[in-house]
Amino acid sequence: MSHHHEPEQIKNHQLSKLIELAEANLRLLRVIVGELAPPKLTSIQLSFKGASMATAGPVTLTTVGQQVTASVLGFDQFGQPFTGTMPSATLSSDDTAQAIVTFDPTTGLTTAVANGVANITASLTTAEGLALTDTESVTVAIPVVPPPTPVLSSIKVAFA
Asked: Higher confidence at residue 38 or residue 33?
């Protein structure tokens, strides 16, 4: 019985183990490099903050004069809040007549005027030249209070 194939099999086995190890190390290295990759600003979201709320996304106002302030949140390629320097965003409202909300593009202050929906848009260009925008709706839904129904509350008897 000859055993001249055994060293060859051992060598092949060792080789495949080495390759497995190298592949595992490469995977680990990719993870480390990925984690060390500098965060880039890849998305933005408008957030509205008011006296009673802080909400990302659309917001509903229910009284005349109720105010919220629009601000821009940035997120990196990992979906985490962006920690770098945020380029300044341009804010605008599609309710140019300011019939639904009055909107100050400098401060982001949004004030309810009358029922309807106004879309607020934030846009900016990242340091890498990526144009990002987000549009969120501000709904003004002021409940309409019906006038009180007259109710018989007293009677007066008149003697002729």
From this structure: 38
